[in-house]
Amino acid sequence: MTKEQLIIEVTKCMRNTPYALRTYLQTYDNTVSKYVPLDLFPDQVRLIEDYDAHNENIALKYRQAGVTTVTAAWASKKLVFAKKQKPEKILIIANKLDTSVEMANKIRNFTEQWPAWVGVGFSADKNAQRHFKLTNDCEVKAVATSKDALRGYTPLSLFLMRRRLLKRMEIFGLPVWPLYLRVVRLSLYPHQTDTMQFIMKFMTKR
Q1: Residue 185: its pLDDT value, please?
Q2: SS in 3 state form for the chain?
Q3: Amino acid 124: pLDDT
Q4: Residue 23 lies in a domain
Q5: Is 69 domain-assigned?
Q6: What's 78's domain CATH number?
Q7: Crossing angle of the two packed helices 67-80 and 97-113, in degrees rounded to 10
Q8: Domain span at residue 56?
Q9: For 38-96, how does the pLDDT look when each residue is reduced to its tens digit (9 = 90+)?
């Protein structure tokens, strides 16, 4: 690939997330016991486009809809294409640590698949299942629900998993009782500590 072709490809990937995921990522298909290209259904494409267009997203889903897989793929693209001057920090919170670590591992797996020309790898300074860092200073951390989940870590993206975490979504203006809430993503910024504390208040309720 020439330098000009590379510039065109990078630009295309940054502007068209569905294209980037379909072109460079694979997912394991249990029916054939091997990795296959990440083929996106129309609903999954709309979900990705919503992630790109909006800072606050709630995914209402049925089981085995591929929302977790597609969300992890989307997150990996955010990580590898982030600039070192503006790194992405993702915090995954679930009611069980195993659940959040599983999501982090999905993101890790997709991150490993991006081609060498993205120029991003895993940092030797921090490379554990629960918390890993990339060479462009992006980070992913997985934790279980607790009042101290945000201590010492200021995320730009927050993934809340399992519907039991948020029984009343008043942070979006109206009380909502979603039937199949799987993932909530909120883009936050370091100065919004009040918002983060507010979210934690609802997450620690049962």
Answers
A1: 46
A2: CCHHHHHHHHHHHHHCHHHHHHHHCEEEECCCCEEEECCCCHHHHHHHHHHHHCCEEEEECCCCCCHHHHHHHHHHHHHHCCCCCCCCEEEEEECCHHHHHHHHHHHHHHHHHCCHHHCCCEEEEEECCCEEEECCCCEEEEEECCCCCCCCCCCCEEEEECHHHCCCCHHHCCCCCCCCEEEEEEECCCCCHHHHHHHHHHHCCC
A3: 92
A4: no
A5: yes
A6: 3.40.50.300
A7: 60
A8: 41-203
A9: 999 998 999 999 888 887 777 766 667 788 899 999 999 999 999 999 999 998 888 78
| Residues 133-146 pLDDT 10s | 999 999 999 988 77
Encoded tokens for 90? 């993702």
Domain membership of residue 14 (yes or no) is: no
Q: Report how far residue 164's alpha carbon sits from residue 95's, in angstroms, rounded to the nearest whole number.
A: 8
Q: What is the C-alpha to C-alpha distance for residues 87 and 42, in angstroms, rounded to an integer?
A: 30
The pTM score is 0.80
Number of domains within the chain: 1
Pair of tokens at residue 38: 């990440």
φ, ψ for residue 197, nearest 5 deg: -65, -35
pLDDT at residue 172 is higher than 50: no
User: Residue 16: inside a domain, yes or no?
Assistant: no
Average pLDDT across the chain, whole number: 79
Considering the chain, what percentage of its residues have pLDDT values greater than 90?
A: 50
Q: How far apart are CA 54 and CA 71, in angstroms?
A: 14
